[in-house]
Structure formats: C-alpha cells, structure tokens
Structure to design on (138 residues):
C-alpha cells in the first residue's frame, strides 16, 4: 500500500466515523440544567434535537444524590472492539457511579467501567434517552 493509498484510506475512515457517530451531542449538558428545562433536550452533531425523558433525569438524580449536577448528559458508552465483541466502556467518573449503581455492580475509583452486552441492554432499557453509544475503532 502506497502512502497516497494510506492517506486516502485514513480520510475515508475519518468520514465514516463522523457519519456513524453523528448521533453524538454537539455539547453535553449537566443533569441539573436539563432538570430545569420545561422540555429537556440536547442538540446532536447533525443538528437535530434529541428530547430527554424527565423520568430518566429523576432516576439519575436519585442514583447520584449530591453529585447529580456534575453528571453530563448524555452518558457516553464506548464500543471496545479491541477488548472483544460485546464489550463497552464508560469513562466519565460520575457516569461510572450512576451506571454501577443502576446495574448494582462494583467499580474502582479512577478506572474506566467495563460492561458487557447484557448489561448494556439493561442500561439502554432504563436510560434510552440519556445514554448514547460512541463507535470507536479498534
């Protein structure tokens, strides 16, 4: 593969990743800011409006108590193809606490939280509008 071919491939890969991740937020918003809105929403990278279910916001507030306002929505859950199929990562420390409490699992401070597909199903069932999946290449 020539250098031009590699550059072309990398450019195509970059475009594909932008397209596959267009559902990510333009900017994440704090839980407390969303709770103050009459109709909570965020703007996605493709310019669309994503409505947030207030019941999910209340659940997250209950899970986090005093740390609730530090949580940024949506909670980003990354694919982790380098760790195997069906493996996902949560990196945000406040989001880790919320997801761990929701799933009733332990976690270590200052470490990413690794969850598996069955756990992801539970998270997405209970928090469909406040979580999103980030597709990261291997």
């Amino acid at each position: 593969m020539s250098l031009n071919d590699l550059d072309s491939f990398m450019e195509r890969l970059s475009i594909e990743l932008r397209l596959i991740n267009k559902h990510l937020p333009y900017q994440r918003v704090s839980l407390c800011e969303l709770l103050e809105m009459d109709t909570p929403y965020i703007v996605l990278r493709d310019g669309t409006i994503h409505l947030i279910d207030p019941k999910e916001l209340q659940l997250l507030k209950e899970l986090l108590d005093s740390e609730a306002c530090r949580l940024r929505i949506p909670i980003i859950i990354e694919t982790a193809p380098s760790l195997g199929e069906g493996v996902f990562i949560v990196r945000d420390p406040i989001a880790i606490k919320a997801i761990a409490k929701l799933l009733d699992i332990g976690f270590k401070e200052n470490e990413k939280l690794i969850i598996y597909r069955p756990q992801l199903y539970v998270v997405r069932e209970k928090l469909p509008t406040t979580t999103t999946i980030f597709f990261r290449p291997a």
In short: The two ends are 20 Å apart (CA to CA).
